[in-house]
Amino acid sequence: MWWIVAVTFVMILAAVVRRAIGPFLTLKRLPERLEINGMVLIKDGFVTAGFVPFSQREVALVDAGNDVDAKAILAELSRRGLGPDDVRVILLTHGHADHTGGIAKFPKAQVMALAAETDVVEGRSTGGGWILRLRPPKPTGIRLSRTLRDGEILDLGSFQVRVFAVPGHTPGSAAYAIGENLFLGDSANQDTHGRLKAAPGIFSGSAAQNRKSLVELAGRLAGDRSIKRLVFSHSAPLEGGMTPLLEFARLA
Ligand SMILES: [Zn+2]
Fold first, then answer.
1. Report field, pTM of the whole predicted structure over 0.70
2. Please, are residues 73 and 51 in contact by the beta-carbon 8 Å criterion?
3. Tens digit of each residue's pLDDT (9 = 90 or more) over 152-165
4. 173 Cα to the center of ligand 1, angstroms
5. What is the pLDDT of residues 76-120, one digit of tens each?
6. 96 alpha carbon to ligand 1 midpoint, in Å?
7. Whether the Cβ atoms of residue 206 and residue 173 lie closer than 8 Å to each other
8. What distance in Å separates the CA atoms of residue 22 and residue 40, rounded to the nearest whole number?
């Protein structure tokens, strides 16, 4: 009888593992380092951070990577003769640990996220997703310097940042339009066929809300000609302006 229990256990385990890693097998791989439109996408293992120099000696980051030592971001700073104190702003797409890892390395940075994401960033909530709920939240030691509102526009020297709420992956997930790039964080990805797909459901608080937010964002930015590419945290960026997101919304 014991072997029936063992086989059942192995089958359940295999199904859980397949559901957990399956969504990542169909993603277009991240580039190593990509310089676009005055910004750099920095690969930190399986996630990217956006590096946005907005004056001679001031840098904003879109997320802070997974690495608590922030090695890849520090290397980009030193390549430019800059140091950790030159990072002045960190815009969080959301509060999951693989996006906030390096924050402590940049003590002069103002850390910003949508108000609805505060509990996730500061460690009072996982933000949802059944696989993330397996581990209870614990305090992260991160304090938001400033909370952002949907529709807000931030002036960062040579760049403007347009802030959009795209709840679903987490309650306060944000997208940021900066120059030609629309940073979508974990709310969407590029698949291996070059299409935009929504966030994997197992890591998201509400997959349905995530899809709804993407459709709404497509509506809000439908006529926007300034956006040239869509940037994702776990897959390669998609060229073609708003078209891939509009196509997603058309089929949703
Ligand atoms: Zn996430």
1. yes
2. yes
3. 999 999 899 999 99
4. 9
5. 999 999 999 999 999 999 999 999 999 999 999 999 999 999 999
6. 5
7. no
8. 28
Residue with tokens 């399986």: 46
Residues 6+ positions from 164 with CB-CB distance below 8 Å: 150, 151, 174, 175, 176, 177, 217, 220
Which token pair is 29?
């791989």
C-alpha 84/C-alpha 92 separation (Å) is: 17
Protein residues near ligand 1, an ion, with CB under 5 A = 96, 186
**CA of residue 132 to ligand 1 center, whole Å:** 10
